[in-house]
Task: inverse folding
């Protein structure tokens, strides 16, 4: 399980729904080689990213990859999880055979 407190959140809800994709990948990739491979591809894909220091003075933006994502928190989003687990993204990330 990822430490959600170490991932930049991009919304105003108490629990958070949208998070920075790079921060999420850093939490998911425990293997440094996988992390470096991702960052190499990311730098080829996202050619420019910038952000303000805060979101409407509501929360600070400390990291912003230019991509956001949903983080599947079973205890918070039970109604979304069954369908999310059917997506190609979920299966390619969480059902990998190493």
Result:
């Amino acid at each position: 399980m990822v430490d959600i407190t170490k991932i930049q959140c991009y919304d105003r809800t108490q629990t958070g729904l949208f998070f920075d994709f790079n921060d999420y990948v850093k939490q998911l990739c425990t293997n440094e080689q996988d992390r470096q491979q991702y960052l190499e591809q990311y730098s080829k894909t996202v050619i420019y990213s910038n952000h303000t220091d805060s979101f409407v003075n509501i929360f600070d933006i400390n990291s912003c990859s230019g991509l956001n994502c949903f983080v599947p928190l079973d205890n918070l989003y039970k109604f979304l999880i069954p369908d999310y687990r059917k997506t190609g993204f979920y299966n390619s990330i969480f059902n990998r055979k190493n």
Remarks:
- The mean pLDDT is 81.
- Residues 4-72 form one domain.
- The helical segments are 21-28, 32-45, 81-84, 88-94.
- Residues 32-45 form the longest helix (14 residues).
